[in-house]
Amino acid sequence: MSRQIRINAFALAAPSHLSPGLWRHPRDRSSEYNTLRYWTDLASIAERGKFDGIFLADGISLYDVYKGSSEPAVRLGVQFPRLDPILLVSAMAHVTQHLGFGITSSVTYEPPYLFARRMNTLDHITQGRVGWNIVTSFGNSGTKALKGEDAKPHGDRYALADDYLDLVYKYWEGSWEDAAAVRDRATGVFADPGLIHEVSHHSANFKSEGIFIAEPSPQRTPLLYQAGASTRGREFAARHAECVFVSGPTKKVVGDLVADVRRRAADNGRDPREILFFASIKIIPGKTESEAVAKYEDYRQYASVEGAAALYSRWSGIDLAQYDLDEPLRHEESNHMQSAVESYTTADPGRTWTVRDILEAIALGNRGSTLLVGSPSEVADGLQSWVDETDVDGFNLGYVLAHESFADFAELVVPELQRRGVYKKAYRAGTLREKLFGRSPRLGDSHPAHKHRRPGNAA
């Protein structure tokens, strides 16, 4: 049986995400990012297209590496300004029944207790449709604005993340027993104090004493996403993640990354097939190839090369203004996204990337995604080849034009994938975890959160 392709809509609460300059297009809706209708319309389109979820990127740092300043990004609206994505989910959940929501939140910025309660709240009111994209945040401007200090070194951020996860697992999995919320009208007992336990956590990063204030939600722990592709990030994903967001400019880069994380997961005692991989992609479909190419040429007129330089410079920590356009990119170490540099240098030694190549690739693409342009059949062929050759399970589908790109995919590509038997025609019942994996709404026994689960609590 053919492998089912999974799709997330990839978005950011800003007037530009990964297609700098396209907010100027007359049909683009990105400038409406600060209206509720923008997000409820997006959710309705995604559910109509049977998308698995909306994956919401986030961060509070500026794009300030290019030319040593945030001025280009601010002027061009490159992921600026930006809203808090977690506040958008309630409205989107209200207009949908099945769609999942992956929310990015940083272990560097959010106190564990308050974050755990906020995610628990969303899991309750969505009936178990939320996931958490775990990030560690490398941007100095964000940590300086929040705390008045530079971001932690790469390795230290992941050590903090492991500690953070250990603590929130205790809140979600260990504080309440399943039977604690009695709700007994006859006796007047709402919660049994004997079945609610104190969390005790003392580490170099966090200290916590007391019970978790929120009762268990449908998933207890939200579905866990992670996107780190550095060596340390891969180890973290292999230990904690259920879904991994991968990106790379070639199939070799993506395939090698997927294989490595699956191997590391097995070394951690986990079933590597219980991790789903979503590759970054953008698609410009048309009813015919010529219609798709015409859309592409139309979109290109609005793409901002300067905006693309601001994006990549901040991701990589390399100021592209220091390079000639036809100069090959050199591998440099930084405290930024190590994979953003490796993808265009050491990860695929058979390909040399100049700065011009990179900017052209990401102007309508992104840091490491492919761009498919063509008829529904051609796009479907491309998606299936990526699944077959890289072992990914699906895609984080970025938009070129909001919300046209998502609506075009739902209208044109989804029926072709369904015809081929590689895309669902109906949603599974249950929580986001149940829909994606077809099993329990709770984390499996091989996951490290299991050690915090109270005896007798359901898996």
UniProtKB/TrEMBL annotation:
<comment type="similarity">
    <text>Belongs to the NtaA/SnaA/DszA monooxygenase family.</text>
</comment>
<feature type="binding site">
    <location>
        <position position="104"/>
    </location>
    <ligand>
        <name>FMN</name>
    </ligand>
</feature>
<feature type="binding site">
    <location>
        <position position="58"/>
    </location>
    <ligand>
        <name>FMN</name>
    </ligand>
</feature>
<feature type="compositionally biased region" description="Basic and acidic residues">
    <location>
        <begin position="438"/>
        <end position="448"/>
    </location>
</feature>
<feature type="domain" description="Luciferase-like">
    <location>
        <begin position="24"/>
        <end position="388"/>
    </location>
</feature>
<dbReference type="Pfam" id="PF00296">
    <property type="entry name" value="Bac_luciferase"/>
</dbReference>
<feature type="binding site">
    <location>
        <position position="154"/>
    </location>
    <ligand>
        <name>FMN</name>
    </ligand>
</feature>
<dbReference type="GO" id="GO:0004497">
    <property type="term" value="F:monooxygenase activity"/>
</dbReference>
<dbReference type="InterPro" id="IPR036661">
    <property type="entry name" value="Luciferase-like_sf"/>
</dbReference>
<dbReference type="InterPro" id="IPR011251">
    <property type="entry name" value="Luciferase-like_dom"/>
</dbReference>
<feature type="binding site">
    <location>
        <position position="158"/>
    </location>
    <ligand>
        <name>FMN</name>
    </ligand>
</feature>
<keyword id="KW-0560">Oxidoreductase</keyword>
<keyword id="KW-0288">FMN</keyword>
<keyword id="KW-0503">Monooxygenase</keyword>
<dbReference type="InterPro" id="IPR051260">
    <property type="entry name" value="Diverse_substr_monoxygenases"/>
</dbReference>
<feature type="region of interest" description="Disordered">
    <location>
        <begin position="438"/>
        <end position="459"/>
    </location>
</feature>
<protein>
    <submittedName>
        <fullName>5,10-methylene tetrahydromethanopterin reductase</fullName>
    </submittedName>
</protein>
<feature type="binding site">
    <location>
        <position position="230"/>
    </location>
    <ligand>
        <name>FMN</name>
    </ligand>
</feature>
<feature type="compositionally biased region" description="Basic residues">
    <location>
        <begin position="449"/>
        <end position="459"/>
    </location>
</feature>
<keyword id="KW-0285">Flavoprotein</keyword>
<dbReference type="GO" id="GO:0016705">
    <property type="term" value="F:oxidoreductase activity, acting on paired donors, with incorporation or reduction of molecular oxygen"/>
</dbReference>
<dbReference type="InterPro" id="IPR016215">
    <property type="entry name" value="NTA_MOA"/>
</dbReference>
